[in-house]
């Protein structure tokens, strides 16, 4: 069983984009929709409200999306 170390509670009407890190390495990334909650075992999490800034950060980290998967 994992211990929750970070929680994102989205109370807005816009998605929150996030990236989880372990030892400076990106481990997971995704979105939290309106009225959703995301819990993770990772302590280091970057949150973004801009899809463009989030995508730019993922590209900076060497993560590319396949065509047609972006919102």
Provide a brief overview of the structure.
The chain is mainly β and 71 residues long. It has one helix at residues 51-60, and strands at 6-9, 16-22, 25-32, 37-40, 44-48.
Description:
The chain has 71 residues and is mainly β. 14% of the residues lie in helices and 39% in strands. The chain contains 1 helix and 5 strands, in the order βββββα. Strand 2 (16-22) and strand 3 (25-32) form a beta hairpin. The longest helix has 10 residues, at 51-60. The N and C termini lie far apart (33 Å).
Features:
single chain; two-stranded antiparallel ribbon; 71 residues; 1 helix; mainly beta; 5 strands
Secondary structure: elements and pairs:
Elements: E1 6-9, E2 16-22, E3 25-32, E4 37-40, E5 44-48, H1 51-60
Antiparallel strand pairs: 1-4, 2-3, 2-5
State the helix count: 1
- Rounded to the nearest angstrom, the distance between the terminal CA atoms is 33 Å
Main beta sheet strand tally, sense and closure: 3 strands, antiparallel
**Rounded mean pLDDT score:** 91
Order of helices and strands: EEEEEH
**What is the topology, as strand order, of the major beta sheet?**
3-2-5
The count of DSSP E runs of length 2 or more, i.e. the number of strands, is: 5
Radius of gyration: 12 Å
- Kindly state the percentage of residues in helix: 10-25%
